[in-house]
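pasting input
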Amino acid sequence: MSAIGVEASPIFTAVFYLVAVLVVASSVLVVQLRNVFKSALALVVVFIGGAGLLVMLNAEFVAVVQVLIYGGAIPVLIIFAIMLTKDVEINNPSNGLVVTVALVSVFIATAIAFSVFNTEWDFLEYSKLAVDNMEAVNLAFSDSTPLIGLLLFNQYVLAFEVASVVLLASIVGALVIMREE
Amino acid sequence: MISLEHYLVLSGVLFCVGLFGTLTKRHMVTVLMSLELMFNAVVIAMVAFSKFTIPSIQGEGFYAPMVLSGQIFSLFVITVAAAELALGLALVIAIYRHKESVDITQVDVMKG
């Protein structure tokens, strides 16, 4: 793991915990608020906090994409749907499975935490990579946006094209479903 | 020092909150929002993996930009999530026109 300056500082740790608590608390609000419109607003807080985490992970490009799409476009769609269905006044009821699903969710979260702490991760370390390789890796993280473009149009070009077909299909599908008879 | 485990546990908690919302809520839009929470948890986990773990190809074939593969995957997850949400909300509005309700328990015509 590359300990570059700022990441070892206590302020970085404090900011991480602050954002983590904000994200988890807002996500609980999303599922627990009685007003669906307010849940949508809490969802925006989750996504912007998630973008903050991505910045802390040196993924600036993904963070900007997340702010644009998750922080901008998706909330607009959701709020449109909430307003078009006129159920803002109706609260946000749960079905009869709350206790069971809560237990299952807590169990799965515990299982994830258990397996995370008991796995031997292949960490990115100076000892495992040659020095020039490690420098190239650090360079890739410090200036990631052009390299993401390079990868998208070389190694992952097929997935990129398929993604555009998926988007086209979803546009056409949404229009067909929404069209008035 | 914040390590991979911190991000993974955070992502797991976020995923489970989304799972809870998806399985318990009756308002269709809330179910879709909880699904988005789960997608976002996956995005955070994949970017964390790309930052903290070594790429599988080492030695001769080592190509440093491949450490960004996790970020590329998360971009595709965001794309697919946006497409899925657009379709899902179109379905919500179509069902609302048909049934005057967004209660997911009302949509059970295909129940055996």
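fyi The mean pLDDT of chain A is 86.
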